[in-house]
Amino acid sequence: MALDGIKARMQQLRVQADESSAKVDELTAEVKKLKQENMAKEQEITSLTHKLSTSETDIEKLETTNKDLKEQLDHVGQSSNQSEALQRRLQILEEEAEEADKNIRETNDKLRQTDVKAGHYERKVQALESARDQWEEKYEEMSKKYAQVKKDLEEFQIEIGNM
User: Fold this and answer.
1) What is the pTM of this model?
2) Is there a contact between 114 and 90 (Cβ–Cβ < 8 Å)?
């Protein structure tokens, strides 16, 4: 009767160990997936940062050109055709500068959103790694219990055999 109880307990410990092992595998896969997503977000941040830098350089160039054109407009008192052409060019450059400012704002917004998402994924990865570690500890504990029960069963069988 005691032997059946030990066998049942061993079977129960085997099932628990198998379940713990499956859970560890599942959590490990989830951590890997989240790390890949985090890496993609970091690459997107790098790309957006580069785009922001390029846009800022473009704005500086446009502002310099805009300033030069305004100075030329001030110095040129010649024909109205030249003046009108410079006015049109100035207007176009101002519109381009406004568009570049808009792009910078959008890029900054995307960068902030991506940064927030990256932080979220990092926290999620940490939580999953913590859960995985707990499951691994439980799995090791169950393995030790299983080994002890197996040893106890073998000793019990030896005692029964000696009787």
Assistant:
1) 0.44
2) no
